[in-house]
Amino acid sequence: MPTCKHYIGLVLLISWHLSNAQPINDSVFKDLALRPAVHAGQPVLFVFLSPECPLCQNYTVVLNKLDRQYGRKIKIYGIIPGRTYGKAEIAGFVEKYKIDYPLMADPSMRLCRYLQASATPEAILLSAGDELIYKGAIDNWYTALGKSRIKATENYLQDAIDRALKQERVYLKRTIPVGCLINDF
Fold first, then answer.
1. HSE-CB for 80 with a 13 A CA cutoff
2. CB proximity list for 49: less than 8 A, separation 6 or greater
3. Total count of domains within the chain
4. pTM exceeds 0.70
C-alpha cells in the first residue's frame, strides 16, 4: 500500500519531469533566416514535391484546386528539395501540370530539414504567426505506395485550411505522408 513518502516521491518526480521536459511548441521559424518574407500576416502552405514522383504528379490536380480556392487567403509554395532537379525540369513540371502557385528549389535542403519534411508530397501548413497548423498527407487517397482508393474520403489538408481560416481548432494536426522519400540523389 502506497505511503505518504511514495506520493511525495511521485509528485517530486512528476515536477522534475515537467520542469525538464521539452516544451510543446509548434512555433516553427525560430531561425528567422528561413522565414519566408512574403507571407505577411497570412497562413502559409509548403508542399514538398518531386517532379518525377507519380504521387506528386497525381496530386497536382488537388493542389491546383486548393490554390484556386484558397490562393488569396493563404500563401502556397511548392518546394522541390535537393539538387536533383534544375530550372529546366522544374519549369517542365510547372508547364505540364499547369501549376500556378510558386515552385521553389531548396537545393541545400535547409528548409526541408528545418521543417522535417520526409516525403513528397508532404504538406506543412503554418499560421500567420508561424505556428504549425497541420503537417502530413494531403488526404487519404493513397494508403501506401502503389495502393490507393478510388477517391479520397478524408481531406486532411483542406479540412485544416478550412478550420484555420475560421479560426477553429484543427483536431488532426499530423498524419504520416505517403509518397517518395526525400533524398538528394
1. 23
2. 56, 78, 79, 80, 93, 103, 120, 121
3. 1
4. yes
